[in-house]
Amino acid sequence: MNLLKILNKLSDDQFYTKQASRLDALTGMADIGTKAAIAALPLGLGSLFTTTAQAKNNATTAPNAFAAGALTDALQLALTLEYLEDEYYRMGLDAGGLIPSADRTVFMQIAKHETAHVAFLKAALTSLGETPVAKPTFDFTAGGNFNPFTDYNQFLILAQAFEDTGVRAYKGQAGNVMGNKQILQAALQIHSVEARHASQIRRMRNNKGWIELDNGGNMPAATNAVYAGEENITQAGFNTANAFGAAAGSAAYDEVLSGSDAATIAGLFIV
C-alpha cells in the first residue's frame, strides 16, 4: 500500500464514522494504522521497519551492517518519542491555568528531563555519522478528539500513555543498541527515568505505580494499544502466575513494545 492510498483511506470520513473513530484507531486500525504511522513519521524513521530486514538479508556479506542500521534506527525512533514528550510538556506548561500549582513543579522537572534526552539522542546520532530526524509537527488533540491543554484530566491521561509507551519502547529496542556499550548504558539510564516519570504520573492519577491487567489503570479504551500484551504471564518459559496468581504474575514483569507498535501510537499524534 503506497502513501497516496493510505492518505486517501484516512481522508475518507466513512472510515472513521462507519469503521472506526480516530481514537478507536489505536486498537482497530491494525495494518493500515501501522503503515500510516510509519508514512507519517519523519523521513528516515519510517525506514526502521524496512532497512533492518534488508540488513539482515545482507548480514552474511556485511556482518556489521545490520547492527549499525538497527542501532541508528532505534535511536531515531527514541528521538521521535522524546520529541513528542518534550513538546507535550512544553505546551502543557505554557497553557495558562492548566496545571495546578501543586503539580507544576513535577512537570517542570519532567520537561527538563525530556529536553535532556532529546539533546543526548541528537548528539549520539551525530557522533555515529547520522543526521537526527527533524522534530515532527504534533497534534495532541488527535484530530480534535482530545483536549489535553484545556482539560487537566485529559492532560494526565495522555501523559501517562506517552510515558508508558516510552518505557515499553525503550525495552523493545534494547537488543538493537546492545552492540554499543556506551549507548546501551545511556539508554538504560533514560529508560529508568522514563519509568519513574510513568510511575509518578500514574500516582498523580490515583493509580498504582506499576501496570496491571486493568488497561494500565483507569485509562480510556482508546489507549489499549499502549498496554497490549501486558497481561502476559509467561517469562522465558516460566509461568509467573504459579506463585501469586495471574494479576501479580503479570504485574511483576513489564512487557516490551515493538518499534512498529510504538510508531503506530506516536503516529496518531503526528501531523
UniProtKB/TrEMBL annotation:
It comes from Paenimyroides aestuarii. It holds the Pfam family Ferritin_2. This is Ferritin-like domain-containing protein. It comes from the Bacteria. InterPro entries: Ferritin-like_SF (IPR009078), Pigment-catalase-like (IPR052965).
